[in-house]
Amino acid sequence: MKTKTRFALLALLLCSAAATAQMTPTSPAPPAVPQFKDYPADAPYTGKNHPLVLDSDFSRSYRTRLREAIASGKPSFAGRYIVTRWGCGTGGCNVGAVIDASTGHAISMPNALMSVYPLKPQYEKEDGQELIYKLSSRLLVQAGDIDSSNSSGKDVVEFYELRDGEFRFIRSVPYGRADRTKP
Predict the structure, then answer these.
(1) Is residue 52 part of a domain?
(2) pLDDT in the model for residue 29
(3) Does residue 183 form part of some domain?
(4) C-beta neighbour count of 170 within 10 angstroms
(5) What is the mean pLDDT of the chain?
(6) Residue 135 near residue 44, CB atoms below 8 Å
(7) Which residues contact 169 (CB under 8 A, 6 or more apart)?
């Protein structure tokens, strides 16, 4: 008799727990932040840098900066791209491009970046940059005040994939930097 009672109580407990779980609303898990490993690049390009190709208004407008980058740079993004940046005329503002070392084709960065202060701890080893990338990945991360149609532009991190010769927006998340004044 005790065995039947225990079994009945266990069954009642399990049914009750299952019913409660079905009635309890659960909040969906937040989407995962894109990871470099999820956007692998081809093997690194090791050949000689191709001369700049002046095939767009962008490459013609910034040919001096782009040629300087090709002359002194080596691929550091997405297997074969040289990353270059320069100021856009105001303190802390940066624009730039990636240049395919194998073809000489330049691609403008997705947006202008404003400085970020202070950087989150996970980015502090990234040379104090607001632009984070790896040779082994096609993922580009921009953080800070961003002039973008994809977000509010204030204190955000935007993720882009370089695919088929253009940056494709993945998602934007709040940056959440501390409320401090710059030194």
Answers:
(1) yes
(2) 59
(3) no
(4) 17
(5) 76
(6) yes
(7) 110, 150, 158, 159, 160
**13 part of a folded domain:** no
% of the chain beyond a pLDDT of 90: 48
Establish if 25 belongs to a structural domain: no
Lowest average pLDDT, out of 3-7, 21-25, 129-133, 161-165, goes to: 3-7
SS3 track for 113-141:
ECCCCCCCHHHCCCCCCCEECCCCECEEE
Neighbours of 92 (CB within 10 A): 15
Burial class (CB in 10 A: 0-12, 13-18, 19+), 86: middle
Q: Is residue 182 predicted with pLDDT exceeding 60?
A: no
Count of structural domains within the chain: 1
Distance of CA 115 to CAs 21, 25, 182, Å?
A: 46, 41, 10
pLDDT of residue 20: 43
Task: Retrieve residue 78's tokens.
Answer: 């997405």
- Domain with 50 in it: 37-174
Q: Nearest to residue 126, comparing CAs of 170, 86, 156, 83?
A: 83
